[in-house]
Protein: Glycosyl transferase family 1 domain-containing protein
Amino acid sequence: MNIVITGYALSGYGGMETVCKRLVELIAVNNPGTKVDFVFFNEKGEVDEQWYAGLNARMVASTVRNTKLRRLHFALALSGFLRRRQKRLKDLLDSLVALQGEWRLHVVGDGADLFQCQQYAEKLGFAGRVLWHGWQARPWLYAKTNIGDLKALVLTSAFEGLPMTLLEAMAHGVYCVSSDCPTGPADVIDGINGRLYPVKQQAELTKILQGL
Structure:
């Protein structure tokens, strides 16, 4: 399988370069037969091409200003996994109230409002079904070793930069359920590798999770 990633040229000085390289590494480990090519549209010509070493990358001189092509230029937002305003973990917990059958929620990450989230899960009556694993330096290795097979990864964000969590999950072959927030999820989830639901619509999220 071949994957072609296109976008606005990266300067070679920001965090997105690390994201691209890490994505290639994850795909190489989990899908050895997959080839990844990058096509970058360079408007300014001020690009340090040294960072492209080791990648199958091609630079194209262009003034293309398509919004979707430029989304690789967004900065990666680093924040606590449990940050309620952005990550909206409360939406996920609320969606689980009506979920039928046997299920477990594994939360890998940390944040200032961890205790409030744990209290809220207890208030909803299913604290025993939610396992809090805390911050992990290598979350996917940790999940493979300590959690096992995952049915899906759920992203309930109100907004994102580039949803690296989704890309990493896909590289590991994990089905993704995500809010259709700006920006990113709609560009990488196609109905086969995952499903989208409207932001803040917990009932729609419940329907998707129930169907897994």
